[in-house]
User: Which sequence fits this backbone?
């Protein structure tokens, strides 16, 4: 460790130099930012940083958006394919498993865990990779084909959580925004992805409106009315989680690719 | 701009050198980390990445924690002092301002915006910088001194939002976990930080328990009962925001330094 003082001196020097260079770059970035503000439409507000935009989405501070900011397309691609998304998923699954393992269950088989399907239990990354990671408009025809193919992979961390919940004796209920007519491919896909059993799979009647909050909270209410206790509720959209009854605890799976209100 | 190629070359060289130095440090950090895992209690579980831990905190997936993970002390310090925290705050304030500007106000002066105080309107970073950015145990004596000094700076982005709200005719109410006996320094500090007017400043009676959810939601209920419409509700803790009535829309200010349930 005799080299430590030398190493620290070198690091300090390098950091100082980098900070000086960074300061010059930051000044130029601010100029660019000002230009963007003057030329962009209100619907395409400049983004201070794609990381901040993503945090804003994940915390439900940014709502009612239709596509990711154009300048964040590469950022979202790198995030979804990189380590960080998987680590973010691992943290959610780990916290959920630790919480479930700490529960005192009643032994009456009435505890249920509600899962959303799309981008919670199954991943639609193959579809989104083909459509700009949320930067291109939603393509209903192509997405219906994707669902019909029943080839969506699982989110591995969520699949592992699912196994943990079953081993604890907690029942699983899927409540999905997928429509009634997509029941067969959804069952086929859940099974092929490793979700081999569940107590209930609730699909959205085609007659319902576009907001999923009343539909999903209404279905949770039916579970409670039937005597179930919703110990956990997990989804990639805040609209999966909010609206009474929320369940004893909610878990937000990361998803920077789209917004469902 | 003839110096650009030279500048880029210099940056590349510096980045390369820093990466090499960082790799050596990271290897040592991993050794340390492995040691910690073998010796730590279950309450100090290993963290996949500090960025994922922070996202878990901000999305309310990680709850009931008492201090930041020891290995994330440097990460949280760099985050709080760096551009990202300020950009994260700017996104929240920008979304809140855009939302407020889009409201159709009743003209009866009954719309209010609820703000938390600590690390929402005022920053306690000076206190946390002295206590390991949340890595060291909460020091009630020192924090009381910090509050009594009334020198906390504002969060600039929130102060700007506050001015926007007032200019729109939305009233401001502060509901804080600070105690009754801290009323005078809190008023003094809010004023010196630039919060020059408000309709109500609610402080917590010393007799109340430690959870702030019943206290804060109860105070929001009193506002609603008095005929106010809570159009926005902003805080750095989820316990500032949850519990009916939440207000028409909630905004989570980033805070990776501590957890209040």
Assistant:
């Amino acid at each position: 460790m005799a080299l430590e003082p030398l190493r620290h001196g070198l690091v300090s020097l390098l950091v100082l130099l980098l900070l000086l260079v960074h300061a010059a770059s930051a000044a130029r970035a601010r100029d660019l930012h000002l230009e963007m503000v003057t030329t962009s439409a209100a619907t395409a507000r400049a983004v201070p940083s794609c990381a901040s935009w993503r945090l804003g989405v994940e915390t439900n501070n940014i709502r009612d958006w239709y596509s990711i900011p154009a300048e964040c397309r590469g950022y979202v691609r790198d995030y979804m394919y990189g380590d960080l998304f998987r680590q973010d998923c691992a943290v959610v699954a780990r916290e959920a498993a630790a919480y479930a393992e700490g529960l005192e269950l009643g032994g009456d088989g009435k505890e249920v865990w509600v899962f959303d399907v799309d981008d919670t239990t199954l991943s639609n990354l193959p579809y989104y990779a083909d459509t700009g990671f949320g930067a291109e408009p939603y393509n209903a025809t192509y997405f219906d084909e994707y669902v019909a193919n029943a080839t969506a992979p699982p989110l591995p961390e969520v699949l592992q959580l699912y196994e943990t919940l079953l081993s604890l004796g907690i029942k699983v209920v899927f409540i999905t925004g997928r429509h009634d007519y997509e029941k067969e491919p959804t069952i086929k896909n859940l099974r092929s992805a490793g979700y081999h059993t569940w107590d209930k799979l609730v699909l959205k009647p085609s007659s319902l409106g576009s907001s999923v909050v009343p539909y999903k909270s209404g279905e949770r209410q039916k579970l409670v009315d039937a005597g179930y206790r919703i110990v956990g509720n997990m989804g990639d959209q805040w609209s999966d989680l909010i609206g009474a009854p929320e369940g004893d605890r909610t878990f937000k799976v990361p998803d920077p690719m789209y917004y469902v209100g």
